[in-house]
Amino acid sequence: MDMNFTPPWPEQELSPDSLFGCLIRTAVDGIMVIDDHGLIQVYNAACVRLFQYAEAEVLGQNVKMLMPTPYRDHHDSYLAHFKQTGEARIIGIGREVSGERKDGSTFPMYLSVGDGMLYGKRVFVGIVHDLSALYEERAAHETHLLSLREELVHVARVSELGQVSAGIAHELNQPLTAMLNYANAARRLSASGQPEDVQKVQAVIGKVAEQAERAGQIVRRMRDFLEKRAGQRAFDDIVAIIDDALALGLLGTKASNIQTHFTPEVGLPAVLVDRVQIQQVLVNLLRNAVEAMELSERRALTLTATRQGEDRVEVTVADTGHGIADSVSSQLFTPFVTTKDHGMGIGLAISKTIIEAHGGTLTAEPNPGGGTIFRFTVPAETVKAP
């Protein structure tokens, strides 16, 4: 102990041979004692290891030197408030805080503080437990869970497109067949050798290019949808996201004679989302709606996008299908619960996980006209009052 520092109790009480001194010296956790002015009176070897200050550097100094901002800035007022009112914010309670080492780096710790009297003096005893290893383990666990979730989300996307593979083949076959027909027509016209057919050949080639662009758009949407990658959130146009999801989610459904209506609110703000993941949610909701209306006489699919408050956009997908049975409604978003003969039962569960990861909500309710309405919200650019 610093020879120039005099503790408020007999020095022999802190000697290595005393019970008090032995307990403090051998403790695995950091133990320090401060007086009612916040000045450090006792600082054990574990504290030296944790904070990197030698004992002589801290004895008699304010304990806030071991705290990063903002704890350092408010410590004295907290201590004064407790002494005046007895209202504890950490004393007698304990909580996770951060400590600051001599080199300026910080580390997570659990701080337990108790107060009492020692030799007629009021003191506060703090016990510091280093949480660095626990935080590292927690971070590794969270990273592993995130990786598993992203893998499951990707598997669900593959499953979604697998279920509409026949529709995809049909949609691709149409432009490819048209391209073949136009190419044969161009070959016949060019073989005639007639000057007046040159313009016709050029027009036909233009038709080929249009169909090639159409096929390319289908392939692009499929490729983007199936791309396996970490989540990438950015501000995006929700109307464009919904338009792409409609094109992908309704592949192969023309024969079903579904009347689709999409009415977005004018002037919607940009939304902060992972574009592909939100499209995945929409495709799942759209495919569910299509299947729900297979036996319905009226097949109307209605989508809306509206502003909700200052920082949210709500999207709704409403169908006129058979609705949701009461026996299923309470477990609608539970994994592996499905009413489909060949369904995996993970589409809605994953959709809910995606939306909640975006800070939004996904709900379902009966459609007054028959069927179901799904609603979800996503964060948007804050709309400031003029």
What this model shows, in words?
This protein has 386 residues and is of the alpha+beta class. The strands form three sheets. A five-stranded antiparallel sheet has the order 2-1-5-4-3. Strands 7-9-10-12-11 form a five-stranded mixed sheet. A hairpin with a 5-residue loop joins strand 11 and strand 12 (372-379). The model has no long low-confidence stretch (mean pLDDT 80). The protein has helices spanning 19-26, 45-51, 55-58, 71-85, 132-163, 165-192, 197-226, 238-249, 275-292, 326-329, 347-357; strands at residues 30-35, 40-43, 95-100, 106-118, 121-130, 233-236, 259-264, 271-274, 300-308, 312-318, 362-366, 372-379. The protein is elongated and about 115 Å long. It folds into two domains: 11-130, Beta-Lactamase (2-Layer Sandwich), CATH 3.30.450; 231-386, Histidine kinase-like ATPase, C-terminal domain (Heat Shock Protein 90).
Question: Could you write a compact summary of the structure shown?
Answer:
With about 375 residues, this protein is an alpha+beta fold. It has two domains: about 10-130, Beta-Lactamase; about 230-385, Histidine kinase-like ATPase, C-terminal domain (Heat Shock Protein 90, 2-Layer Sandwich). The chain contains eleven helices and twelve strands.
